[in-house]
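Lab channel / #folding
Pinned by the channel admin:
"Please post every new chain as: sequence first, then the structure tokens as a reply. Keep commentary short and put observations after the output so the thread stays searchable."

First post following the new format, from NK:
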Amino acid sequence: MSTLQQEVYEAFRSINVPEEQALKAAASLAKRDVDVVELKRDVALLKWGQGVTIALLVAAVVKLFFP
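Reply from TO:
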């Protein structure tokens, strides 16, 4: 269990949440973190693709007006 999961688990246990539910909540938060990392990777790839597309468009416009 990671530090964050341990902290979440202990916080839930301190407010008398049953152990099983506290473990599920901590695991759910860990899964959410993994999902966020995957989304950040996807967004970075999309940004690179958009940058390349804009660069090609600018190059085409420059070539069109300044042969």
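NK: The chain has a mean pLDDT of 91.
TO: also worth noting, The two ends are 62 Å apart (CA to CA).
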